[in-house]
Write a structure and sequence with these properties.
By secondary structure, the chain is of the alpha+beta class. It is 49% helix and 26% strand. The chain has 2 domains: 55 residues; 114 residues, 2-Layer Sandwich (Alpha-Beta Plaits). It has a 4-stranded antiparallel sheet, covered by helices on one side. Strand 1 and strand 2 form a beta hairpin.
Amino acid sequence: MPASVPLWIRRLVALALLLAVVGGVGAAVALPVVDAFEAYDKSIADLSFRLARFNRTAAEKAPLLAQVKALEARVPKDSELLPGDSEALAGANLQEQVKQIIIQSAGTVESVQTLPTVAEGVLDRIAIRVQFTGAVPVMQRVLYAVESGEPRLFVDNLDTRVVSGQHRKGTLDPTRAVILRVILEIQGYRRGGAGDPA
């Protein structure tokens, strides 16, 4: 510097240069540290959010397990379902079971017809239409045996007609036993299977 510059200006310029160097070095060191702190803050916020979400999910575990147990309890046991590896076998088993119930109840089987299978979720509904004759106690025993036994069976579309035991005028003859013709549908379920041969 020229000698004519006053001392105080030279000191001021030296101080400014020193501050610029210190500021530059400080900025070079401080900015990455500040950026790292900001990144850590964002990471902490993200992890805190994830932890809160995890805690909420963990708190839902017990009620969800209770729901799973309740759903498992609602799944029919194998003894409540129709036996048979296919729809056709299950239908044949159902027909044979119902025929035996009617015969053991002192009824007479007139006809049995298999109805179309209907898929209901994971189960297949197997149904038959049965026509039989017998006295009123026969019908009572058949209905009781069907609905109270295993596998679980359900009666639907019950129709009864008196075939004997009444006069031509439609009144009942107390000296003759009333014989009914009963037509009903009986349904049961089996575990469904995609592509079962019918």
